[in-house]
Specification:
The termini are far apart. The strands form 3 sheets. Strands 3-8-7-4 form a 4-stranded parallel sheet. Strands 1-2 form a two-stranded antiparallel ribbon. Helix 5 crosses helix 7. The protein has about 240 residues and is α/β, with parallel strands linked by helices. The longest helix is centred in the first third of the chain and has 19 residues. The model has no long low-confidence stretch (mean pLDDT about 90). The chain binds zinc ion (2 copies).
Length: about 240
């Protein structure tokens, strides 16, 4: 029993230690109370790239009228909108890994502030925030869900509720790297379940995640939310791999 809770306890102990100790900006090293200083947050939020408004992929065409990529036009995903803060590339990739695999939890709050900055007023009309759920096994192993930690500052800043337990991940599907695109799509089917439809039905839901790779996870989650009555699903993602 104790074994099961050990990652949680060590993650909690680390969080307390990290909040008590003064920290420096992990990018530029200046003395700072948060994991990233304001100047680095501004520098890391990349709003120059012209991205597909539906899937967040960088648009190949420089035509200013084109806002939706060819892939979304020919096979529209279940989500309506995706806002990506930056590419999943140096230096963000190693910072994300520090958060996930070395439990550098103050980074989650810094990432949350990057999302707030990138989103501006885009999601004022949204009803709820839904951090992408982890499977029970993955949550027990890691001790925290990085998407939940990233979403907390947004929920506070925007005064919007966080959906944590009403939508669950029924199985772990993140080890998809070795699979083909078709296999990945099949592998994702039925990966999410809604436990309380009332928080989903007729709502504009903003799904929060740290990294978007192929987009299959977010497609499947959005399809599940739409089946349960969601009016609109928008993704707000910290980093996206530059190619599908
Ligand atoms: Zn800095
Ligand atoms: Zn697209």
């Amino acid at each position: 029993m104790l074994q099961k809770y050990r990652p949680w306890m060590s993650a909690l102990a680390r969080t307390f230690a990290q909040r008590l100790l003064p920290s420096d900006c992990q990018m530029c090293g200046i003395s700072n109370s948060a994991a990233l200083c304001d100047a680095c947050v501004i520098r890391l939020v990349d709003t120059r790239a012209s991205r597909c408004t539906q899937c967040g992929l960088t648009l190949m065409s420089s035509a200013p009228t084109e806002t939706i990529c060819g892939a979304c036009q020919s096979e529209p995903p279940a989500f309506d909108q995706t806002l990506v803060v930056t590419d999943y590339a140096p230096p963000i990739d190693s910072l994300v890994q520090d958060l996930k695999f070395r439990a550098q939890l103050p980074l989650a709050s810094a990432f949350g502030h990057m999302l707030i900055r990138a989103a501006g007023a885009s999601f004022q009309a949204a009803d709820v925030l839904l951090p992408v759920p982890l499977s029970r096994e993955r949550l027990a192993q890691r001790g925290f869900n990085q998407a939940v930690e990233i979403a907390r500052p947004l929920a506070r800043a925007w005064h919007k509720p966080l959906i944590i337990d009403s939508c669950v991940r029924t199985r772990d599907t993140s080890a998809q790297a070795a699979l083909s695109l078709t296999q990945r799509r099949v592998n994702m089917r039925g990966a999410f379940a809604v436990r309380d439809r009332r928080v989903i039905d007729h709502r504009h839901i903003v799904v929060i995640d740290d990294v978007m790779t192929t987009g299959h996870t977010l497609r499947e989650l959005a399809a599940c939310l739409k089946r349960h009555g969601a009016a609109r699903v928008s993704n707000l993602v910290l980093a996206r791999t530059p190619t599908r």
